[in-house]
């Protein structure tokens, strides 16, 4: 009986981690279906993704503080209820401005799901067992990220509201969490938290003074900017230029995600072969070529080739950047570096739709991808010329 209960608890945490990547992936292929009902331009509809990532960027740095201040259960339940409630409210948004407001509040909830799951796993497990369970959590997140892209497209073909209905499952998960997951941490006195908060803010300030930290943060921003350039505008391109259904757009996005996951599994071999400079250079070149060619093809199989290049580029570059950030600062600032790194990722995601919207509106979808490709190729040049340090954090890549 105890073994069954522990499995149910672990399954609850894994599902929570999977829900943490549904904020953008579930809606990305559905974007074309929102244009008509809300009377917005194709360029503006990407703001549905931006407001969510903006909320995540603003709240994510303080999630850890809340976990220590009020405990794991209140934060987890609050995040699940906020995510589910505002996700469902999006189905009845009377206008586009209200939809964006609901998405912003939903982003506050959904951004905390993965950090909460990771924290509770760290509370429950130690040593090799913790590593094994973290592997389960990472695998669940990766698989969910691919599945929801396809699922979002299929549901949007039936009705634009249906992808939002999926977020209501967070309310059911909140009930399961309440019934199965005990508090695994202890609340911290406010005075101690206030002192810790001051130290945390000072550590963030000290972190930003490090040149190598600033460089890896720029990589995080640009890489996830390029990711959301594709995620936002590929469904619009496929709908307007190829006349494909949103379900096919979801399948296309899932395909590049699958390629990225497969290539990421070989990240160590790529690193050993090319080193840090060569790995980043190749990754950005693949991404640039993919973004520049995807709008040139008249046949969908050729589009799939470009998407495979994009997925390979992400699969090469992301592990290298993630590894780099783990050693970019001194050990005592690792937590601050990682927290800021994840915030910068969301900033990059937030910036892509509104900035490229202007290109889309005034020059068309092809130039939107050409501009993104140009950014990727310029960043490949920067990756090739940056004076990487000889520390173990860099040399290990």
Which labels suit this protein?
397 residues; 18 helices; disordered C terminus; mainly alpha; 2 domains
Record the SSE blueprint.
Blueprint: H1 2-19, H2 22-25, H3 31-38, H4 47-70, H5 72-89, H6 96-110, H7 113-124, H8 127-158, H9 162-166, H10 169-180, H11 190-207, H12 211-241, H13 246-264, H14 267-293, H15 300-326, H16 334-363, H17 365-385, H18 392-395
Which shape, going by the Cα principal axes? globular
Query: C-alpha Rg, in Å?
Result: 21 Å
Kindly name the structural category: mainly alpha
Order of secondary-structure elements: HHHHHHHHHHHHHHHHHH
Largest sheet: none
Please tell me the CATH architecture of the largest domain by its name: Up-down Bundle
In CATH, the homologous superfamily of the largest domain goes by the name MFS general substrate transporter like domains
Question: Fraction of residues in helices?
Answer: over 70%
- Uncertain runs: 391-397
What count of structural domains? 2
